[in-house]
Every structure is written in C-alpha cells, then in structure tokens.
Specification:
single chain; mainly alpha; Rna Polymerase Sigma Factor, Chain: A; globular
C-alpha cells in the first residue's frame, strides 16, 4: 500500500469487485466512475491506510461506500423508479436471486423498501447483501462499532419485511425450489 509502484497490484486484485459493488448500488453507468474514484482516493490517501484497522479490501469498500453516499440521491431516485417497473423474468434460481439484489433487478416494493431505509441502514444492508462482507468488515468499512452493524442490519431487515407486508423476498425464491 505504501509503495506507489506496487499500488497497481492492489488495483488489479480489487478493481473488479469494487466495480461490481458500485454497479449493484448505482447501475453500470456510474460503476466505472465510482470504482476509479475509489482507487484514486485510495492512492492519494495510501499513507493513511492502517492495516490494523482493516484489510485493504475492506478499506476500499469503505471508500466506495462513502463515494456512493455522494450519489445517494440518485441511488434513491433509481430505486424509486425500479419500484414502478414490472418484475423481471429471470430464468434460473441463481438468476432470480441475483436479480433480487442487484440494482438492475430490484423491482417493485423491494426497491421502494430499500430506498426508504435511513442511509446507515441501507449502507449496512447493501454491504452485506451485495458485497458479502462480514459484520466485522462492514464495521471497519463504515468506521462504526461492530454492534452498530448488527443493530442497523436488524432494523433494515425489519423495515424491509414490514414494507413488503411481512414477507421475505428471498424466501419466495427459496420456496420456488423446495
């Protein structure tokens, strides 16, 4: 991290993953910009990276989430627009699961429920759902205590379930396949 000539290794190892996370949050058009800005900011601030606080991957997710926060109004508008779209016709189980959690696949009430979450709860929920980060990694990425992650995630799940009339959209996918 502290050797500018080797920073390309960090970029090569993590760019696709950070890009994918940004695409799921904001769509493919903004993903390249967010991913590029993430690595530019990481490079500029590499002297402030503290490996005792978080691993590089987690640190990059924190930067990306902060940059996405700057695009939050557009993200919420996009989720609200997807709320009005019909459900996608995904083919297989994996496609349906991916469609449920990606920005291009969020539809109907689920998109509206996610858009209606407070910022901190939405960030935690989407870091867990889209980036598959652990509670520890989410805490490090967002700079919040571990317990805060659990509380936010619990509240976010509860709010989403309530907005969906008490249903779990993932259970519908699982029930379709026994």
């Amino acid at each position: 991290m502290h050797d500018p000539d080797r920073f390309g290794d960090v970029f090569d190892a993590h760019f696709a993953e950070i890009h994918g996370y940004a695409a799921k949050r904001l769509g493919p058009d903004a993903a390249g910009d967010i991913a590029s800005q993430t690595f530019l900011e990481a490079f500029r601030n590499r002297d402030r990276y503290d490996p005792a606080r978080a691993n590089v991957r987690t640190w990059l997710y924190g930067i990306a989430t902060n940059l996405i926060g700057k695009h939050r109004r557009a993200e919420v508008r996009g989720l609200r627009a997807r709320e009005r779209l019909p459900a996608p016709g995904a083919e297989g189980h994996a496609d349906r699961v991916d469609a449920r959690v990606s920005a291009q696949g969020l539809r109907g009430r689920l998109a509206g429920a996610i858009a209606g979450l407070p910022d901190g709860e939405r960030d935690v929920l989407l870091l867990v759902a889209l980036a598959d980060l652990s509670h520890e990694e989410v805490a490090a990425a967002l700079g919040v205590p571990y317990g805060t992650v659990g509380s936010r995630l619990s509240r976010a799940r509860k709010r989403v379930r309530e907005a969906l009339g008490g249903t779990n959209p993932m259970r519908e996918v699982e029930d379709d396949h026994g």
